[in-house]
Fold this sequence. Notes:
Layout: H1 2-56, H2 59-73, E1 86-87, H3 88-97, E2 103-118, E3 123-137, H4 155-158, E4 161-164, E5 172-187, E6 190-202
Antiparallel strand pairs: 1-6, 2-3, 3-5, 4-5, 5-6
Helix pairs in contact: 1-2, 2-3
Amino acid sequence: MKKFLRRANRGLILAAAAAAGVAVFTLADNAGFDKDKPKLEALAREYLDEVKQVNLAAPSERQALAKTLINEYWCETGERYSVNGALKNEMLNYIDYAPETANITDYVDVERSLTVKKNGFRSAKATIEYDVSMEMDPLTPEFQILGLESGYYYYEDFTGTAAQAEDGSTAGTVNKKLTVNLYFYEKDGKWKLGTADAANTEEV
């Protein structure tokens, strides 16, 4: 009986030690995330600004710049498929085939809200409510914003509303009201994008 109790006590002590270790690890991880949260907010805004610059580039340069953007800000997650949206390789593959011919003469973006939440161990999710208005020639309502949207999504999810120029020219305005989800992963001490999705939530 005493032997059994000794074994039981040893098991309880080991279980308590393991629980304490998990608690300390969780607290440290949460503290690290709280410290990195402002950095992640700034990184999300920086990425969206870079997306804007890429799409303002000449059509002949846009594809190469978009690939550079993805390679600089994104990382491999080790997944073959993600329920959270497009992975790095899917974004790059889409860029290869995106028919981007419109000349973007103006790109006005307005951030309506930005929230960053913990999304697992050393992982975070940034959700941005985001309005975009683009002046383009020729007018292309289905124009996809490289760096945010890919062929992973249904066509109707990212089609914007369009307003034809009054002078009858081929130029016009495309408006999008987007919800953008950016999933960040810490890799080698740096936060990188691993998955993203962007959907047109309603007409502007």
